[in-house]
């Protein structure tokens, strides 16, 4: 530490590890004991007894809804699923090779063109934004998937619940009850997770008092990265690349030797197996029992075993992204939709944090430790170095 920085007694924590950036009553993680709670309720209880829509209500409004509250919330979401034809037209111009997360980020931001009034002190505006985002994000994900294949998007079905309707919009076939139930549990498991990178991004954006569509668009962009939500798609690519159970050990050894990350493992907070990963693994097994085995599962099991053996003492275990892809694959979902599905679920958590941020807002504006020079010379254009000479000059 030098000069001014030392005087101000600043200590840099890379990745803000261990630095509290907000007070929050939304969710809780105990990373040493593998505990996750939403509003104090253990994740296993919500996975076993709740639904994604009910859990979203819990996260956003702070309590479990009574019968009427749940009915009204479900009803509102059901009837806001349609998207403007202009958004569909916009999507038609997207390249079909584009990643669905990029399409989703653009569409989430585009919602602001229609609904952004920034009436953040109006409870009805908040309610409408919550309902619209929860209702329309799945429709946009499914519509992009249909359109990139050259098909018209499938209109949402008002008689289907949240998860069954999404699966229907992907295939134009009503899902069987087990698939819809498993998918709904997946959404519940992914709905919220304290101050992870995308939620932090949502809160920073929210703190400027911009509109909720910008908040969600910024969070979607952050979730997409392979160190965060994007890892679920990368896991499948990795399992494909490993190809067989025999290749697992050499693959892990090579990763250790080259210091490469093994996708779906490790976590800033969990130093044991992520509790969501255990539930997702059970869900995958349920699907295999009913719909047949997946050859990648044996590879995944061996990978988990070898990573545990070699890296368990460092606290590196399977995270939420490790088994989710195997569940979605069994449901027939293409792997580049895995992260958009994560986003569909996490919209609930992001909205809860948006609301909480607005309740006691102060703009996020942390500090930095400056490592550059002062009073540097302005070198005129024709005197500046070219090509390799540049390395020798300190800009
Ligand atoms: C929804 C989610 O976001 S869950 C996380 C999804 N991301 C992934 O699965 C990608 C793989 N995992 C990772 O990159 C990391 O574990 C993260 C990003 C999740 C957490 O990162 P951090 O808390 O910053 O841990 P960091 O990357 O510093 O790792 C600490 C040590 O463990 C090692 N490590 C952590 N995760 C892994 C991994 N997946 N494979 C191999 N080594 C790992 C690091 O190399 C580092 O070792 P070192 O101390 O010898 O240098
Ligand atoms: O908490 C994190 O850093 C990442 C994570 O597991 C999540 O966002 O679900």
TrEMBL record:
Q: Which PROSITE patterns would you find in this protein's record?
A: CITRATE_SYNTHASE (PS00480)
Among Pfam families, the record links this protein to:
Citrate_synt
Please provide the record's keywords in A-Z order: Transferase, Tricarboxylic acid cycle
Top-level lineage group: Bacteria
The keyword ATP-binding is annotated on this UniProt entry: no
Q: Where is the signal peptide?
A: none
Q: Which InterPro entries does the record match to this protein?
A: 2-MeCitrate/Citrate_synth_II (IPR011278), Citrate_synth-like_lrg_a-sub (IPR016142), Citrate_synth-like_sm_a-sub (IPR016143), Citrate_synthase (IPR002020), Citrate_synthase_AS (IPR019810), Citrate_synthase_bac-typ (IPR024176), Citrate_synthase_sf (IPR036969)
- Pathways per UniProt: Carbohydrate metabolism; tricarboxylic acid cycle
Spell out the reaction equation it catalyses: oxaloacetate + acetyl-CoA + H2O = citrate + CoA + H(+)
Presence of the UniProt keyword Protein biosynthesis in the record = no
Give the matching Gene3D superfamilies.
Citrate Synthase, domain 1 (1.10.580.10), Cytochrome P450-Terp, domain 2 (1.10.230.10)
The family database entries (NCBIfam families) matched by this protein are listed as:
cit_synth_II, PRK14036.1
Question: Family per UniProt?
Answer: Belongs to the citrate synthase family.
Q: What's the protein name?
A: Citrate synthase
What is the organism field in this record? Planktothricoides raciborskii FACHB-1370
Lineage per the UniProt record: Bacteria, Bacillati, Cyanobacteriota, Cyanophyceae, Oscillatoriophycideae
